[in-house]
Structures are given as C-alpha cells and as structure tokens.
Amino acid sequence: MQKIVCFTLCGLFLTAGLFLTACTKVIKLDLRTVANKYVIDGNITDRPGPYTVKISGTTGFYSPNSFPGFSGAVVKLWDAAGDSEVLADKGGGLYTASSLQGVQGMTYYLSVVMGKDSFFATSTMPYRVNLDSVTIQPVLNGGKTVITALPHFVNPDGPGTAYYLFNQTIDGYLDQTIYYWDNAYAMGQPNTFSLERNSKDSTLHSGDTVQVEMQCIDKPMYDYWKSMDAAAIGAGGAFPGNPVTNFSGGALGYFSAHTSQVRGVRVR
Amino acid sequence: MKKNILTFFFSCLSLLMQGLPLPAVAQARYTVSGTVRAKRSGENVIRATVAVSGQTVGVTTNEYGFFSLTLPEGEYSLVVSAVGLQSQMVAVELRKNLSLAVSLEEGATELKEVVVSAADRDRKLSGVQIGTERLTISTMRSLPVLLGERDVLKSVQLLPGVASAGDGNTGFYVRGGAADQNLILLDGTTVYNPSHLLGFFSTFNPDAVRDLTLYKGAMPPQYGGRLSSVADIRMNEGNNQGYHATATAGLLTVSGEVEGPIEKDRSSFLVAGRTTRINAALHASGDTTINRNDIGFYDLNAKLNFALGRRDHLYVSGYYGRDDLSVYNQFGLKWGNGIANLRWNHVVGARLFSNTTLAISNYSNQITGYVNSSKSPYTVDASLNDYSVKQEWEWYAGVGHTMRFGLGSIYHTIQPARLNAPPGTGLNDTTYQSRYGWENVLYAGDEWKATDRLTLSYGLRLTDFRVYGGGNFYHFDAAGNAKDTLHYRSGQPVVNYFNPEPRLAIGYELDDQSTLKASYNRNVQNVHLLTNSAASFPTDRWTLTTNNILPEIADQVSLGYYRETADRGYTWSLETYYKLMQHQIDFRTGANPELTDMVESELLYGKGRAYGVELELRKNKGKLTGWLSYTLSRSQLQIGGINDGRWYDATQDHTHNISVVGIYKPNPKWTFSADWVYYTGAAISYPSGKYEAGGRIVYYYAERNGYRMPAYHRLDLSATDELKKKKHFSEELVFSIYNAYDRLNAYFINFRQDPNDATQTQAVKTVLFGIVPSVAFTIKF
C-alpha cells in the first residue's frame, strides 16, 4: 500500500505543477544547532561478515556533510543462542565483528557503552524472500517514459507480513530514495513495483550499471525506514520528525538484522 | 444516569413552557405571523426585521422567512426591512391572530452598500450572538479574487478570527481550531469536503449561493457536531415570478444558472452548474507529457420549492460535484460530494413553526494506479455516508421568548479503503473495515429578551454517539501496538458516549450605540479527519469516534464589546475568547494513516487550548466602504508522546492576522476593491541538525513545530465594470490581480542536498502563486 500512496502524492504534486505558476527558490533559514547526539549505524546480515557498527554524531544543518566518528566505545553484539562478541575498535568510529555469523530467524542484541552513555537495541532477522533477478522496466511518469529497475520476487503468502528495504546503487552511488515495502496487499503475488526515484532525474540512463540490494527486515526496521522517509521528505507540510529508532538510551540511528541479496543489471 | 438527565431536561422544558404564558390580569394579546418574501423573485427573506414602529419590540425572520410577533390588542405599524430590499410599513389592527404575507421591493442599486452595512450593524449591536459573522453574496461579489473565480470560503478568510489554511486555499481555521473542526452546511446538510482542485476552489458555486453565516463560537443549540465553527451556507431558492439566467466565463471555469417558476407564486426551480475548461487548454498542448492528462471538476446545484397552501412549504435541494485529476497511464484521483435533502416547513399555529428534514450526504474518493503503465489499473475507493433525519420547532412563546427545540439522528458509515486489483497488478483485493456510528441529538434553547436592553440565550444540546460493529476493535499499548483484539458482530454495540452541551449567551445594550456580550458554550465532535500534513488532500481519512478515539470536546468563553458612531457610519468591535479542547488527535512521528486498517495505532491524544483577541473596524457608508480586522491569538496542543508532553504551537497557530478590505464605488458603473492580508507563518518543524545513517543524510528534529514559516502577506486588487445594466439584461467585466506586488509566499519548505555541492544541504521554498492577473465576464438576463 505504501507504493500506492506514494504514487498518489507524487502524482498530486505533479498535477498541481502542471497548471500552477509554481516555482522553487533556495532560502536561508535561521536554524538552531543542537548539542551533539550519538548516531549508531549497526547491521548484521545473513551474508558472511565482518559486520560493522559505526558511531558518529550530528552536525549543524548548514555545516558540510562530514560526520566525524567516535571511537573508544565498548560495543557488544550477541544473539539469542548465547553467542557473543565485543567488536574491535578500528578507529574513526568503526567497530567490526569477526566471529559471529548472521542466521535467518535469529534475534540479535547490540549494546554500546560510550563513557556515561549506554545504548541498547534488538533486531530479528526475518527469513529470506528470494530475489530472482532485476530487469529494466520503462514506466510512464507524468506522461514521460522513465527507465527503472524492477526487482523480481514472489511475495510470500504469509504467515505474517514480510517487510523489505531496497537499496539501489547506480554506477557506485547509492540512490537516496528509500524503498520500503511490505506484502500486506500482495500476499502470494509476484512483485510488479519498480524502483521509481524521488528525484528530479527520475530515470536511469543507457550505460548505467545498477545494483539492487533487497533486504528482508523486521517490523521495527520497517517503521524506522518509513519514518525516515517521512523525515527526509518533509514536503507539503507533512509533519516531519526523527525516525523511530530501535535504540534505547537516546541514540539516533538503528540496528538492523536483515537478509541481503544483490542482483545487478546494466541499462542498454 | 442518562435517563435521569433526559427526564430532567424534559421537565425543565415543560416547566419553562408552562411558566411562560401571560400574566392573568394582562390585556388580551394576539399574534401576527407570516412570511417575508422578495417581490421580484418570490424567495423568502432570511433575517428580515419585523419591528413595531415607535417601540423597541421586534423579531427577525427565521431561515425560511417566517416570523411571529405577539402583542397586546391594538393598532400597530410594523416596519419590515431586510438587506438589499426596500423597507415596508404595514398597518395592522390586532383584534385577533393575524397572518401576513409581506413582499418587499428590490432596493435601489445605489443604496445596496448602505443597506448591507445596516445588516452588519444589526448583527454587531443587537441580539445576543457573539462571534457571528455574516456575508451576503453582494459583499462577496465586490472582493478581489484569484484567477477570476469568486469563492465563498475564501471571502470568509478575510473575517476576524479566521485564518487561511494556505495560499489560494479554501481551507480555513477558526479561532485556532483545525480545518476539520468546521461544520460546513449547505442548506442544512453537512458537506464533508468543501474543496475542488486540491483546495484552490470551494465546492460552492457563487451563482447558487445567497448567504453565509459563520458561528465562531457561541452557536445556538440547534447547531453542533464540530468544535470550532459552523458555516451555514444557504442556496438561492429560485425565482417564482419569472425566468432568469446568468452565465459567467472566467479563465478556469464557465458557470451558469437558470431559475424560474414552475407555477407562478407557488413553486420554483433553480439549476446551477459549473465546469472547468483547463482540459481544453491541456489537450491543445503539443507536449505529450501534458496533453494526455486531465485536470478538472464540475458541480451541479439544484433546488425545487413548492408552497402547499398557506401553512406548508416543501424544499428539495441537491448538490453533486466531482473532481478528476489524472496523469496519463500513471495515476488518477477522483473525488466529490453528493448531498440531497428534503425539507418540509409547517406552520403549526400562529406561534409554532416546524421544520422536518430528511437528508443524505456522501463523500467519496478513488485513486487509480497503473502498475508499470499496464492497461488495467488498480483502484482504491473510500466513501463516507450520512443518513439523517431532523425535526425542529420554533416556538414564539411571547413576552420576549423565542424557543427552539428539536431532535435529530444521523447514521454514519465510513468505508476507509477498498483496493480492487485486477490480475497483473501484483496486488490482492483488500477491504478495510467499515465503521458505523449513530449520532442522536436532542436540544432546546430559549432566546429571551428580558428587558429592553438585556437579552439572554440559553439552551442545552444532548449528543449521544453509539459505535456499532461489525469488525475488530483494538486496545493498544503505549507504543501503538495492538495488545487485544475484540471482534464485534454486525450491529453489535461497541461503545457509546453521551455528552451534554450547555450554551449560554448574554447581550446587554449599554446605550444606543454600544453593547456588551458574553457567552459560554460547549461543543462535541464525533467525526474526525485525520490529516498528517498542513495541506489537506482529498484522500485524507475520515474516522468516527471509537473505543480509542474519544469525542472531541471544546469549552469556550468569550466576551465582546461593540460600538457604532451616531450616524452608524462606523462600527467597531472587540471580541476575546478562551477555548479549552479535550481529546485532540495528533500523529505519531512518521505515521501514515492511509497505510493501515488499524489507523488508531498511528494516533496520539491530548488537549488543546486557544485564546485571542479580535478587533474589527468597519466603514459602512459612503462611496468607500470596507473593514479592517486584526486578530492576536494563540493555539497550542499538549499531546503525550510529542515534545515530551510540553505545550507546543499547533499548525494553525498564527500569532498576528490582519485583513484590510476596501470597496470603492465612485459611480454605478465601476467598483474598485482591494484587500491586503498579513499573518504570522504557521508553526512548523524544521531540522536543528543532520547526521548520516544507512548511507543517507538524515535531518535531526529537536521538537515538533519549533519553528515558523515566513510571514505571509499579499495585496489583491479588483475592478468591476458594469458594461450594461438594463431591467432584464446586464453585462459585467471583472479584472483582478492576485498578489499584486508579487510577494513570493512559501507554500511549503523542504530540505535537500545541494544539487551543485554534495557536501552541503539547503532549504528550498515552493511558491504557488506569484502575481496572477485575471479577467471574468458575466451576463445576466
């Protein structure tokens, strides 16, 4: 259903733009800058490690996009089966695991102790939905044909809801659009939705090499990506806010245990 | 408990009725009653004044033109007067009950503005209702407009205490309340979505509308169901004397209206229609990204009315409108309202007037989506239906008492979404649970002119709301996860709420030129619109009160002072209010109410408060008329889970709000008008930092609504040239300039990576309307 609503909103703005004298202009706002907050970016997948946890911080809106890492934290990763390890501090805010191997269906725990602050998160890796292939799909967008990538997989017919995140990399650059879906209205159906970018240049181009990563994620991570999308867009007056993190203790970011499959395609 | 309250209520009512009859020793009293109509059209006249010459005694006609006045036996001269019509003196010899049918001649055109101001003077100084604004179509006609299109709801935004929901938008906020807290009535029936074209037009065709009354707070007990206001819009009735037609061509729409007698003096019809002509322009484009899309709407108003003898009158009115936006082979969105009602007026006796209404109101929308540009789209339909019946009585009890009492019942059904997915779309047919609610209302109120100077209005409205199955109802934990699911059979009661709503208003005339008024009232709302953005979309979800969503309740006190100059050339008023709102609804961060059947899991609840001062100065006479209004106000929410439970400014909070309106009429041929509006930008959330997670830049929000949009201001100009004006034919040309000094007001602001510098982020404002000149042409015959 997410896709459906996204279509609607994009379409509405598009239609409005057709007849209004709309224009956009860069403006300078007087924005406050809050004191640094820790940001934790932790992942464990069903592919071989090493898995990494990155600890960084916030910066002012008008500062450059560089986010220094924080080392010196004690980062511990363990699973419901009792296996655990303390991650190696590689400096620059990067911490890596070496022995743990992600397994589908397993619940994982991550704790981070940084001076007086401690943060904790849990995430369960769902069972994988197989990504068969990725093909190129032309679609109409505002009457114009755009080239998109279409991931082929069959939505499981229950039990429960399957949640996905897709990351699209175009010639080595991560597409900033957040593609988060579920199978709630497509149980048992082959996927038909392609990755349409929320970008002015919404099309892929001839010669592009496209890598699509499909992640099967749990419900809290689905909520995280959904709310991150809302925060990222913030357009049309939709109430933006911070993504709903699965960390307790006041950290930003997330800890995601997910399956990961990558398929590539080249646009002819 | 409830039964006791009802019993108490009825005993009070009957006591009141028994208590009212006349003192035993008084001389005989008789009643003169009847209707006031406009001679030229035969239409009834709302709020005409029927006054006894040389005395302060008088009444106004109700919304069906009926009046009743009880006086001691004797001879009287009654002065009947109304907006835009010539006053008439009627001599009556009151030795028994009399019935009158008064027909007023059309007033001379040049006097119109003066007469309009007289009506305003009546509103502001006399009577008891505080926070009531009335706009007649003649005032609305003089105001500048966007794209040549007059609009009832945009005119309302120029009144004190009313703020616009966005540039060029028909949505409005009254006294710090949300847009869905306004009850919008067309001939007494609720219109759920009063907007066309995503809010740039209202659903009310100005050719079909004659009058709008806005109650900003102290509404009489016959009104209820929304927290903030009632906009009571009345359609023209149709001329029962002769046939007339109007045709208007604007840049975006063409509209027309035809009316006339079915049987002269007894019955009439009116049909008005309007449609856009944007599609013609789009389809003429050579660009295939434009010429296969559709943008348009149409609407149709129809009304029939029949006099059935002297005591009965029947009205049938209806509205149907549809919007259609579609982008070729990608998506489509259709929405619209359909309403119909049947009203039967019956004069039970000289002092008792009855009105019975049967009505239906429907709102529906449909999204169409094409998966990968396939030929067979999926659709998502949503609909809301109200079936209502209402019985009202107006009893002119005499000795200064006018009582209104009645009861009503509305059956609500809401189908939030039904996905119809043909094979190949990769989706399964899915239906969200429908919700059913039954709202019953009982009310009584008395307006009592206690002394020459003191008027009291008091009443009670009882609202009973019942939620029925079938379907699943849930209990949620603090995080919004369902912890308990209860299944109800079809028709099984789920929960019910009973709320008494007291209404009290006092008006005291300090002297001939000044009045003081005060009021307290409570309103209850059981139908809520869930919108998670400042701009409202046609797909925003309506929901009923449930076991989790409690009835919204507002208590408001207000105080007003009104003064006019001796020649009545100027009036000024000062009103102040404080409003406390319970069970307000807000969203969890990142919520998307369209995505889930279990919508309550996305909601948070709390309370709201709004207060402010509204100042208005009007010039009523001369070639230059107009008004200046200034509102200083605040509207805040306190919701558990947002901003750590602290009070924060609501989206509709505009600290300062100024409107200046001038209408200059140097001669009968030309009318010039201008308006200037200014308001503090809406409260909004902006980032107070940024970080990187998941390979993406994420903005950090320190709090909800901690920033402000830039201040909004705009000047509009208009000139109307009456090209020809004959008895049966007139032509009019209207030139307008919207946003004359091209202020680039931000419609919304979003944040992105600088396209030219990947290391930076920037804020970007989107402006919808710069300077927009337009022209419209109207023919009447």
TrEMBL record, chain A:
Q: Which Pfam family, giving just one, matches this sequence?
A: DUF4249
Q: Which domain of life is it from?
A: Bacteria
Q: What protein name is recorded for this chain?
A: DUF4249 domain-containing protein
- Native organism: Puia dinghuensis
Q: Provide the organism lineage as a comma list.
A: Bacteria, Pseudomonadati, Bacteroidota, Chitinophagia, Chitinophagales
UniProtKB/TrEMBL annotation, chain B:
GO MF annotation list: siderophore uptake transmembrane transporter activity
Q: Name one GO biological process term.
A: siderophore transmembrane transport
| Gene Ontology cellular component terms for the protein in this record | cell outer membrane
| Record-annotated TonB-dependent receptor-like beta-barrel domain positions | 284-739
Q: Which Pfam families match?
A: CarbopepD_reg_2 (PF13715), Plug (PF07715), TonB_dep_Rec_b-barrel (PF00593)
Where is coiled-coil annotated? none
- The positions making up the signal sequence are 1-26
Domain of life of the organism encoding this protein: Bacteria
UniProt KW keywords: Cell outer membrane, Collagen, Membrane, Receptor, Signal, TonB box, Transmembrane, Transmembrane beta strand, Transport
How does the UniProt record describe the way this protein sits in the membrane? Multi-pass membrane protein
Q: Where in the cell is it found?
A: Cell outer membrane
Q: Which residues form the TonB-dependent receptor plug domain?
A: 149-226
Similarity-based family: Belongs to the TonB-dependent receptor family.
What is the protein name for this chain?
Collagen-binding protein
